[in-house]
Specification:
Number of strands: 7
Radius of gyration: 47 Å
Shape: rod-shaped
Number of helices: 1
Distance between the termini: 120 Å
Structural class: alpha+beta
Strand content: 5-15%
Length: 180
Amino acid sequence: MIVICEECGKKYRIDPAKIPEKGARFKCKSCSNVITVSKPEGTPSEPPPSPANQMPAQDGEERPVATEPAEQKKPASIKKSQKPRRKPTGLGLRTKMALLFVFIPIVLIAAAGALYLWQLNTLASDITSVSSKVALRWPRMLYRKNARAVAKQCNLYLASHPQTQSVRLPGLHHWHPLKM
């Protein structure tokens, strides 16, 4: 059975027969994280006979689970007292998972919100500029339309009343009829 440390990801190979019924706990050799292991359901409750170099557990005494790293063991010539083990400086597995499932989605949602607001402001300014142009053109179009209609009526009147004279009014560039 292989157990993986949740903090640093180190793998340990554990004999399921050596795990007590209520489970066992041990510390990771790399990061000192406490790992809890429960007994798998498909294993027999009686462990196989222990080797001669291990002492059997006394009644009521709990023995730690023997663990061995999944990687190859270091040679016995290297002493543990040479260098004290430092805690890993990299990000642990829990921190990486928190970044992946919490921090990154929050950043993406914030970026999408900023993009949405920028597009909304751009659209609002475009709509405002186009509508103001239309609002300014509309009275001019109505004025021209009414002016043309009045000019047609004046021409009809002048055509039907030939006795009227045209007089130039000061300040105007057109000749206007004057009724006598």
